Amino acid sequence: MALWLTRSKLGHHLGRKIASLDALRRSPFLDPVATPRALDCPDGILRNLRSFCSIQSAGARSDDACDTQQVLDFPGGKVTFDAEMRFLAESSVDRINCYRVLDDYGQTISGSRFQEVSKEVAMKMYSEMVTLQVMDTIFYEAQRQGRISFYLTSNGEEAINIASAAALSPDDVVFPQYREPGVLLWRGFTLQEIANQCFGNKLDYGKGRQMPIHYGSNRLNYFTVSSPIATQIPHAVGAAYSLKMEKKNACAVTYFGDGGTSEGDFHAALNFAAVMEVPVIFFCRNNGWAISTPTKEQFRSDGAVIRGQAYGIRSIRIDGNDALAVYSAVHAAREMATSESRPILVEALTYRVGHHSTSDDSTKYRPIDEIEHWRTARDPISRYRKWIERNGWWSDAAESELRNKVRKEILQAIQIAERVEKPPLSELFTDVYDQIPANLCEQEKSLRDTIKKHPGDYPSDVPI
Hints:
It contains 16 helices and twelve strands. By secondary structure, it is α/β, with parallel strands linked by helices. The chain has a five-stranded parallel β-sheet, sandwiched between helices. A hairpin with a 2-residue loop joins β9 and β10. α4 packs across α15. It is globular.
């Protein structure tokens, strides 16, 4: 048992047991580093102190109460006692600051500190951001034309996608949500591979079993997207634990939206990561809207960043529409995660300019002028373009050439993907079991019988 007392009280009440405070300092039971002084008492002194505490609690003034000076080593660490009842405040009035490098006009903020980026990397970042924007526009239109069944854009969040991916290593394992196709683009996933997945043809790695935009790539360390919210977060922690055990110079990275932080998986994952000290980056895209739920109905606390601190995780809030801020923060987060084997939480404040998906009409729950403001005045691509133009790396002619080139490549990829044959019906039942069980065999037979009875209701382009 450890009792901490101030110098004056310790000298006064234990004067008969120890000749002087100087002698107490030389005692082998005293921790010379602790402030106030810590004393591991022998049994005799401990009995004396217990008696003294009983007397104090019975009649002494509250400011002299022994309990107010005690520190006990409870499970989890030493805790100082306090005679005054105090509740922790719900939250601070002042919000946690947001890290930013570029202002709205693409100029670096005076005194800003950020990770230097080479011209080559800077230009690739801009090119991929534009590619993502053009790709989203065309595929969204393709869905509206009935050529694919579903789509979901990253409009307004291009900097989060590309800049975070640029700061990672190819060996880092990514557990995405569904708004991070830019991470795949950066790693080398082609526009043709994206088109194959959205059209669900036989070249799709998922063999047409997934909805469009549910990408995945083993060779690029990008786990397949899963629609249920937040399920990928604990998976990322498990992968990070594996990387730690294998002593790999890599980390796991998982992306999720502000709505995902309300799921139990998020909280279980953060606690697991903090306790096990694993190299994982939790990247929260706080874009203002969890489908139709605004952040004011999602959080009572100050967003997501404060939740990391509550679990004992180093955390930072950044401007998600600032490509340099995103790149710098993730670069630093990765260095800490891998070198110190620790989890890091990054909350990127941004705005989802587009609808949640092609199944949504966001104008039903938020003002159109709010959307337009973020589309124009706060666009991350325009802001970043102003910065590279100031560096003399970009021009209007280069912009026009890039957008025309990307548009042609995407349209060509779509045309090719549409002509590729669909996976055969039998593929619907494979790749789960080594030997297909009887119940799945019965389901396949039932499906084929139904198709024979109602052939007009079955897609003619899927081989039976």
